[in-house]
Amino acid sequence: MNAALTGAGLVGFALVSGCLASGCGWEANTKIDPPGVASPRSAEAPPDVDVGEGAAIQAERTALWSDAQQRRADARIGLDEDELHWIATPQDARTAFLVSRETGFDAWGLETRLAEIPVGWHTGRQRQGEQAIYVVHGNGFAVVNGVRFDFADGTTLGIPYAAERQLFNTGAAPVRYFSATAFPIERHLGLYHLEQLEDAGPNGALPEAPTSDDGFDARDRRIRLFWEEAWYRDGTVGLRARLEATLRGGVDLLRTNRAASGEVDGEGAALASRLASIERRKST
Known about the structure:
This protein is of the alpha+beta class. Helices cover about 30% and strands about 20% of the residues. It has two domains: about 80-225, Jelly Rolls; about 225-284, no CATH class. It has seven helices and 13 strands. The longest helix is centred in the N-terminal third of the chain and has 21 residues, at about 1-20.
């Protein structure tokens, strides 16, 4: 059988070789089309077709990748604080772009800013896309879709897409916060929608809004995460929170999460209550 297969293979190879040598009835192999079929590249275009316009469109799209590569190569990769350009917007009394095309970064997916709320002021009230806020320092509260979420140093806020949001400074020092949005990609996808409902300015009467004690909204979405509530994946609490707990009087957050609130001071009791509330949510 092997000899037969080998013989058949040799015969087939000879036939193919002869066909290729003779052209098999086709034109010379410098052509890619069979006889009687004109190559579209060599044929004249119909009189109502603009060949130049099509070629220009093709060339423009072909160059997109190399253009993007060049933009990435030329883009900024770092920004020092003394390079920040502070501006005022309807939303913020003082803000500066960080990673943004406004500052020379080739930012396609996100945009970041640093912003400050003066003492006794509030930000504007607006709806826009998703937003993550990290409070560098300061005290106050945010109102998200009509619910109040208190914040302090190290608090993280996650604002859902299209939610109404506004921040208030109720402390004795300016609030500084870091903000990240998906503006570039939302814009690219046609999803970005900014609606300014109120401008930043001095606090008048503070809004009366129900307060979320555990940081979740009515749809069971987490909006706020206190620094002390940030747990590592192995179940231990963050190092800074442990140090702060120790300085507060030796309160071990890992222990007080399970202890009766009467064992700790007032601040520790409030923290233990918040943590216990979050643990109940996780177990349901």
